[in-house]
Every structure is written in structure tokens, then in C-alpha cells.
Amino acid sequence: MESHMREWYKSQPSDELILCLLKKKRLDPHFSYGPIKDIGHICSLEPWDLATESETDSEDQTCYFFYKPRYTKSNDAHRATNAGSWKVTRKVSQIEARNGLTGTKKSLTFYLRGLPRKEAITEWGMHEYHVKDDPSYE
């Protein structure tokens, strides 16, 4: 685990490392990992407030969180905040780790509520990772 910590602070963690940590979290909901904080639901916060909730001191304002998404009745992820919402803005990427672990990565952009679409887009971005479901997950 110490080498993972070095990788974490040396540069952005790899997609593979994030999937491995996410799998550990899915197997044990009490699992914690230094720079990643558990958050009830990320959409309870506005994007400009996320840095105050983060466990990392990053010059590039990159934050990492574990959270369990909530879904609407139509099985869409609930990603709305009071000020706007997170929208998937790129094709979902498939991730395959060397150890056989698979998952997906979604790129999202924050849009402000109440403005025309072109004016609503912001500079705030997020990557949302999902590890492939497994019967052993809680």
C-alpha cells in the first residue's frame, strides 16, 4: 500500500489504481484510504465547495471521494445540486486493469441551472468510476 501512496502523491493516480481501491471499498464499506474521503452524496455540495471537503492538498484542485450514487426511478443517476447539475459529456470509457479487474469511467461537466445551454457550461469537471459488479460486493 505504501507504493500506492507514493504514486498518489507523485502524480495523478492511474485509472487502474482507482479501480483497485474502488473494488476494496465495494468489498468492505468501512475501507478507507488516506487521500480519499467518504462523502454521503457528492451532489449535496456545489463543485466550488468540494475542495473544502477533500482530504488532499492538491495544487491543481483535484479532489477524490468515495460515494454511492443515488438513482431516480428511471434508473438515471441523480447528479443535481441546488445551483445546477453534472452531465455526462463524453463517451463512457471502458477500463481493463492488468489484474483482470474491469470498470468504467465517465467524464462529467457541471452546468448551471437556469441559463441557456451554451452559457450554463462551466469549467468544473468530474470523473466518475464504477467497478464491474460482483456478487461478493456489499
Shape category: globular
- Give the low-confidence spans: 1-10
The CA-CA distance between the termini, in Å, is 23 Å
Judged by helices, strands and strand pairing, the structural class is: alpha+beta
Integer average pLDDT: 81
The counted number of beta strands is 6
* β-sheet strand percentage: 25-35%
Q: Can you give the helix content as a percent range?
A: 10-25%
Keywords: DNA-binding, Nucleus, Transcription, Transcription regulation
Pfam families: NAM
GO molecular function, one term: DNA binding
GO cellular component, one term: nucleus
Provide a quick synopsis of the model.
This protein is α+β, with helices and mostly antiparallel strands. 22% of the residues lie in helices and 25% in strands.
Note down, in words, how this protein is organized.
There is one protein chain. The chain is an alpha+beta fold. The chain has a single domain (3-131), classed as NAC domain (Metal Binding Protein, Guanine Nucleotide Exchange Factor, Chain A, Beta Complex). The chain contains 4 helices and 6 strands. Strands 3, 4, 5 and 6 form a 4-stranded antiparallel β-sheet that branches. Strands 1-2 form a two-stranded parallel ribbon. Helix 3 (50-53) links the parallel strand 1 and strand 2. The two termini are 23 Å apart.
